[in-house]
Amino acid sequence: MPYALYANTTRIPVSNVQTDQQNRSVSTSWNLGPTFNTINGFTAGSLVKISYLIPIRNVGSPQTLDIEPQISFDGGTNWNSLRSGRQSINNGYFGSYTNTLLIDPQQTSDFSVSMRFYYYSNSSGIFINQGASGSVSGTAPVVMSGTNGLQHFTKVIVEEVFQ
């Protein structure tokens, strides 16, 4: 039985990928980044696994970037911080920040999940989603259509995990 791994249920867990393609500049005050669409269908008592990738570019002096994911349940306006961490970034840096979190939302009835991000830097010159361009070898086409074209943008994967 293919779904026997998920406790005592035959239900397929919720799994959702969302992408932010907006170029963002991060400054010395907290900046609201993307707010993603609500994801419905989570079962009471299940856990939520959140994985995210944020492409970063630094064109200034060495600095830090703080990333704060926030979560809300059932379309509410009460956001909860999932305090993530700090990334030190050298001058001229192109890279990404990734993290995976497993949380117990302690929901006693079926629920939905919404995600958003805030960013903060100790100085200007940090950009999000601006490092996807560049030259290629010319021996193969660039796969940039559909989902494949979203690989170099901020993305969050939200999954349901049964206990």
The CATH topology annotation reads as Jelly Rolls
- Kindly state the percentage of residues in helix: under 10%
SS element count, helices: 0
What does the radius of gyration come to? 18 Å
* H/E element order: EEEEEEEEEEEE
Residue-averaged pLDDT: 84
What is the correct CATH architecture?
Answer: Sandwich
Largest sheet: 6 strands, antiparallel
Shape, principal axes of CA atoms: globular
**Fraction of residues in β-strands:** over 45%
> Under the CATH scheme, which class?
Mainly Beta
- For the secondary structure, the number of strands is 12
The poorly predicted ranges are none
Query: What's the end-to-end separation, in Å?
Result: 18 Å
Work out the count of structural domains. Answer: 1
- Structural class by secondary-structure content: mainly beta
Structure notes:
With 163 residues, the protein is an all-beta fold. The chain has strands at residues 15-20, 24-26, 31-35, 39-42, 47-58, 63-73, 80-81, 85-89, 94-103, 111-121, 126-128, 154-161. Strands 1, 2, 5, 9, 11 and 12 form a 6-stranded antiparallel beta sheet that branches. Strands 3, 4, 6, 7, 8 and 10 form a 6-stranded antiparallel beta sheet that branches. The chain is globular. The mean pLDDT is 84.
Could you give a short description of this structure?
By secondary structure, the chain is an all-beta fold. The protein has no helices and twelve strands.
Name its key features.
163 residues, Jelly Rolls, six-stranded antiparallel beta sheet, 0% helix
Task: Map the helices and strands.
Layout: E1 15-20, E2 24-26, E3 31-35, E4 39-42, E5 47-58, E6 63-73, E7 80-81, E8 85-89, E9 94-103, E10 111-121, E11 126-128, E12 154-161
Antiparallel strand pairs: 1-12, 2-11, 3-10, 4-10, 5-9, 5-11, 5-12, 6-7, 6-8, 6-10
